[in-house]
Amino acid sequence: MADATIAAAEALEMMRRKNPVVHSITNYVVMNSTANVLLSIGAAPIMSHAMEELEEIVSIANSVVINIGTLSKPWIESMNVAARLSKAMEKNLVLDPVGAGATQLRTNTAHEILTQSTPTVVRGNASEIMSLAAAGGTTRGVDSVNRSDEAFEAAKSIAQKTGAVVAATGAQDFITNGSESYVVSNGHPLLSKVTGTGCAATVTIAAFLASDMDPCVATAGALAYFGLAGEHAAKNANGPGSFWVNMIDALYNITPDQLAREARIQPI
Amino acid sequence: MADATIAAAEALEMMRRKNPVVHSITNYVVMNSTANVLLSIGAAPIMSHAMEELEEIVSIANSVVINIGTLSKPWIESMNVAARLSKAMEKNLVLDPVGAGATQLRTNTAHEILTQSTPTVVRGNASEIMSLAAAGGTTRGVDSVNRSDEAFEAAKSIAQKTGAVVAATGAQDFITNGSESYVVSNGHPLLSKVTGTGCAATVTIAAFLASDMDPCVATAGALAYFGLAGEHAAKNANGPGSFWVNMIDALYNITPDQLAREARIQPI
Amino acid sequence: MADATIAAAEALEMMRRKNPVVHSITNYVVMNSTANVLLSIGAAPIMSHAMEELEEIVSIANSVVINIGTLSKPWIESMNVAARLSKAMEKNLVLDPVGAGATQLRTNTAHEILTQSTPTVVRGNASEIMSLAAAGGTTRGVDSVNRSDEAFEAAKSIAQKTGAVVAATGAQDFITNGSESYVVSNGHPLLSKVTGTGCAATVTIAAFLASDMDPCVATAGALAYFGLAGEHAAKNANGPGSFWVNMIDALYNITPDQLAREARIQPI
């Protein structure tokens, strides 16, 4: 545990020193809020979906985020191309399979990117991760005793099959590369009352990957940092509006030392 | 009046208990802010416009919102399909005719949805509602003495012709199903200094419809609740920025009891 | 200097009296935030990109903003048409060449609008303005001693070649029409930690142009006002989240008298 929290603090420090460029092809709902999260944590956001400029954009990015929250055909094509370019150029690739399981289009789009361009990290909520595992025929069936356990098993099976780090986030976050696994218990219930907080956690992971730490450790660190900001933000919040304002401030203000002291990351 | 305010409080309580899924095909400007409004009031937002997934999305929604604020051809097609699916699946359908009257494209798009897929509720400002009434040839002409009266007459004529509940909102909100009518006088001038507050009122109506109350009563209740949140938000606001933060907090915090006490809804 | 600050105050007062309609074809990331900036300063935002309604929309606008932050082919076509319509209808046209220099698509799109529909004002950061000057073959080469100087020289060469007012903004803002030039030194470092603050400065310029002041003077005034709001906003900010809330409040609250006293505009 001590190792993982110290690593989280180092990842935050290295990420901020690098000021990594994070390119997102993401949903319309969270473009503004995730750009602001990236700026507040010390990264540099770019949004671009035009096929004509993807190669140039990916080439200047440290990490690429594909978020399938508001799909349409031309955007899906751009996502696939950006994912392939990311792999070809050895960039960190992070997939956020928003709504996988809710519709065939979303499940298929996420599954295609997952299998054709192995992301560095996949982050989703429990049902999204379980849907992705089911789409690949890798669910363990009925041997899990609750939803968290099921999500963790689904995450492990995806990780083992694809080689991606998989994070199933919720009240507790499970992060696994298939052999090594962590549970992060930072966070606050108000995070579920603001739109796009999962998407915001995803871009935070993308930025942390630029620290060049091991992706599984960097992802656990990013989620602890993000959840800790939620805890700080809730202190003087009167509801979801002031909570989100405080959240951006907290992401900006949390120091590596604070993160080392307050992160709750456990190997499992 | 007492009946309508008590009904408003009940609608709020029933809506929150149900945590209704509200699917929006809406304009880019307000996607984030209306998603946050839905979360703060106790509903669950989904945004999706891809033709390929509309049937699955509408099927899991309690209410569907069509908002024409930033149109383009493929989006208009998706709006028409979503509106038809909503009717076929007996979902609550709410139309927000943003900018009707300003351009032919907007007037025609709104009029087509209004006449082909009778929304449960149409909410617009005075000029939008008057434009829609004129597009259907149902305006009463010059017999009204001011803009509010004109808007109310236009709302009544649309309601009588189509069977939709129509809300013409402004300093006072007029809600009518063609026979029964209400005026709501909650609200605050700062609501006009933040973008998308009309759109936010619309999604609040969509959520209230899931209470299964009479749509005319539920709409009046939703607008009283929304306006009341504006009054609470203004108390410690220094301008439109802090006002909107307070607004999200107020929508989250207002209880059914407060609404019963402070709602100003009158039958007319 | 005194003249320019007094002119800035007059432009603010005249703009607010007119409540100008500002039509934007802009990037998805900043649609909400720039609409809120326009409302807070006293202008009226419209967003529309549908070819079918551009003529009607431009005709009711006082100023038109073209911002190339998230391009795609149909949007580029709409931008070109809106730019041509703006010129034909003698509207104020403002170009924000977001990311010019980063990709060919952005450089070419901005350069095409710049040369085919001479904007009233072009506002970009140093590298965007230098890229645009280079795209037109008008850079002065290596005779400048630092990046600010280079940006100013690039701005002057574009202004002289095209007749547009050009603003290269940053820690200091340089505004020039090719012969007359100003430097504005209002602002705050937190402006660089919030997404779309450059885009927000651009729409503020578009609104100020509706004051019918000389465009070079109006642009300097708009940037002083915007930067001053940043200074006020920073006073009680705990980070970029509360800073932006305060910024909207400050834009709403700053009076022409305050601007006359606190604007730092110098002819150069």
Ends distance of chain A:
10 Å
Largest sheet of chain A: 9 strands, mixed
Compressed to H and E, one letter per element, the order of chain A equals HEHEHEHEHEHHEEEHHHHE
Shape of chain A: globular
Task: Report a brief summary of the structure.
Chain A has helices at 2-18, 31-41, 54-60, 73-88, 104-116, 126-135, 147-162, 197-209, 215-234, 240-253, 256-262, and strands at residues 21-25, 44-47, 63-67, 92-96, 121-125, 165-169, 173-176, 181-184, 265-267. Chain A is of the alpha/beta class and 268 residues long.
Give an overview of the whole structure.
- The structure is a homotrimer of 268-residue chains.
- By secondary structure, chain A is of the alpha/beta class.
- In chain A, 54% of the residues lie in helices and 15% in strands.
- Chain A has a nine-stranded mixed sheet with strand order 2-1-3-4-5-6-7-8-9, sandwiched between helices.
- The longest helix of chain A is centred in the last third of the chain and has 20 residues, at 215-234.
- Chain A is globular and about 45 Å long.
- Mean pLDDT of chain A is 95; it is low at 139-144.
- Chains in contact: A-B, A-C, B-C.
- Chains A and B meet through helix 2, helix 5 and helix 10 of A and helix 2, strand 2, helix 3 and helix 10 of B.
